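re: ur question from yesterday

yeah so i grabbed the chain u mentioned. its 328 aa long if i counted rite. heres the sequnce exactly as i have it in my notes:
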Amino acid sequence: MKLEIPEPLLRRHRQTPEGRAWLGHLPGFLNLALEQWQLLVDLPDGGLPWYGHTAVVVPVRTTDGTPAALKVAFPYEEAFLEPLALSLWGGKGTAALWASDSDIGALLIERLDQSRPLLKLPLDEAIAVWGELVKELSLRPDARPEWHRLPQLAATAERYCDELPERWSMLSEPFPRWLLEAALEICQTRGAVSRRSSNDVLIHTDLHYLNILAKPGSGHYLAIDPQIQVGDGEFSVAPCLWNRLQDLPVRNAEAGLRRRARDLAQAAGLDEDLVAGWSVVREVENALSYLEKAGHSGDAQRSLWVSSTMAGKTLQGLPAAHELMELH
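ran it thru and got these structure tokens back, copy pasting raw so excuse formatting
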């Protein structure tokens, strides 16, 4: 079967020379992975593979008929780290990794139920599932050599101490200085490169409601598409704040967001104040990233609403929570 690359993935990667080069190699990479692992494509006639921002995922079956997923990702640092993290987790809390080929960026992983993301559960149920999953994923560093290749959150925070003020200035100070300083305070407190913490764990930093899928035929949920840091588990909460804003109460959505952060922290056994602090950091950095690109003003507004709300003083002049553009 000739696999057709979904048009949104083509549009995204046609914009750069590196992306166009990858798209040119992608059909060959997929065929190579199918051949070397003896896989059969499990798509209906005319069906398209699944895809994300940086990868294509093909439902397949192994020679004994076992359902699996073949993922081929654009070559960037987080994609290189995914098989390392999945091997450390060993299928506990995440889809299991069955094979990998770093030369072509291919992974063969356990297939989960794409039609049953955590997004579809009522929010209170989703928070409870999310919290238990975070506990399962909070693996503490051990002697395995893979740990030495993973990025440290303390080093990321140290870098933010220099980068965030510079980017804020280059953008002509697009939001109040107090919000920038709220983010920097956390980075300075948690960012000493020499810091050693017995609380450091392996963090899935993109653990939102669409990156958690049910196992077929069960009520058990597992994570997919990990983006990795090693450090405070509280860093993992922010994606569950900037998604599902439509589920916040219409009246006093700000208090609703802070209650959600509290509920997520309690469900996962995390420190509520540190959850708030890291959420401010992440959304300040996200806001700057969006402002550095054309056409992302709605995304930047959402990030500023979440970051300032979690800092305790929602910025004036932003759309109401239910009017903000949503990303999943």
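noticed a couple things. The radius of gyration is 20 Å. also Residues 203 and 238 are 12 Å apart (CA to CA).
anyway ttyl
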